[in-house]
Amino acid sequence: IYPLYQLGNPQLRIFRPNWFLTLVRPGKEQPPDTVQFRIPMEMTKYDVKNYLEKIYDVPVGAIRTRIQFGSNKKRNHLHQKVKQPDYKVAYVQLAQGQTFTFPDIFPEKELKHEEGSMEEMQEKFMEDEKQRQRLDPRRGGVTEWFGL
Amino acid sequence: MNINLILGIFILKGWDWVGREKSPLAALSWRSPSSSVAPCRALHTTISRRGLDEFFDLPENWGETTVKSGAPWTAKQLRTKSNEDLHKLWYVLLKEKNLLLTLEQEAKRQRVPMSSPERIRKVERSMIRLETVVNERESALRMLQTGQEKARPGAWRRDKFGHVYWYRFKEYAIPWYMNRRYKRKSFFTPKFVQPHIRLRLEKYLRQRARKTSLERRTQSKLKEKFPHANISAS
Fold first, then answer.
1. Which of B95, B104, B106 is facing A25, going by the closest CB pair?
2. pTM score, whole prediction
3. Where in B5-116 does DSSP place strands (E)?
4. Which of residues 15-54 of B touch A (CB under 8 A)?
5. What gap in Å lies between CA B92 and CA B53, rounded to an integer?
6. Tens of pLDDT along A23-50?
7. CB contacts, 8 Å: B132 with chain A
8. How far apart are the C-alpha atoms of B88 and B95, rounded to whole Å?
9. A45, B212 in Cβ contact below 8 A?
């Protein structure tokens, strides 16, 4: 689908590239300047380098790629083998001494229900029930079966 | 194949959308600075130099179950935009899709449901529509300038089984009569395939006849049962 290159041909330029990179958390411990991507199989190291430099303005140093084989071992309920797709992984090292740590994207957040909703009333009800079950706080955790 | 990607992103950096409160989807009415209704000074947006942070959402949205997003771009809306705007919008959509894909993968990793996964589908649809609009414009231009309808040349050819299909030409460095593998491909139907073609044609006609008679039968039965009902549009 790309025009053939012969000596003297103009540089191939691609407008509106249809390739998407996925930043992933590294499974194994990586050096601090290394970022791990999942890239489509058709991309090469030079493609990734230009992509990041031109679209994301990220200075790229070294880059290494490998192809991860997706397993063909699992079987479905019909005992047929199910293939997980293969994908290419790129390890990109940033230039100019920059570091990157994968952030925690799913921090624990307190669920605040909106005023007057069903969930809020249910929560309040459950809270009251639990309050009734609990013993007198003035007794300091001691049971009630003995005493006055 | 080593394709050196030099992308034609002209002045993308000056147009990157302001902060990330606005998403690239259409219905959150956000106009590009180059839309000219009346003569006005062009908006000056800051160049966002966030680098790898563009793979992640705004920190306020981390951990939310639902993130609000607008409707996908329709082809009608996209046809009103200029070529520069469409080009820039493509990259905006591309970055958004990358963001959503990283989010999806991280959600799978942490075994947590991803917030509003329909955003990916919306972005995909917008990109497809953008592609169709650009191709429309390109083909119109090509028709006017050269008279060719298709960018890639091709021809109608028969394969060995008698099917007629549009064969699209591929670029080679040598002519076809020097290409041994190409010469082994035969674009004709041998004579002994004729009975098979005949049988296939009969089967197809039989299926079509069956379908039409079935329709007629169902319509007549319905008319019997419900004589006053008008013809169902199915």
1. B106
2. 0.77
3. none
4. 49, 51-52, 54
5. 14
6. 999 999 999 999 999 999 999 999 999 9
7. none
8. 11
9. no
Tokens found for residue A43? 């991309």
A12/B101 touch (CB, cutoff 8 Å), yes or no: no
| Sequence letter at residue A128 | D
Is any Cβ of chain A less than 8 angstroms from the Cβ of B87?
yes
Cβ within 8 Å, pair A24-B13: no
Radius of gyration of chain A (CA): 28
Angle of CA points B25, B30, B32, to nearest 5°: 105
The letter for the amino acid at B31 is R
Tell me if chain B has a CB within 8 Å of the CB of A132: no
B110 and A51: CB-CB below 8 Å? no
Residue with token string 């990220």 = A58
Token pair recorded at residue B42: 């062009």
Per-block mean pLDDT, blocks of 10 residues, chain B (234 long)? 40 41 49 47 61 89 88 96 95 96 95 93 97 96 95 95 95 95 95 96 98 96 87 62
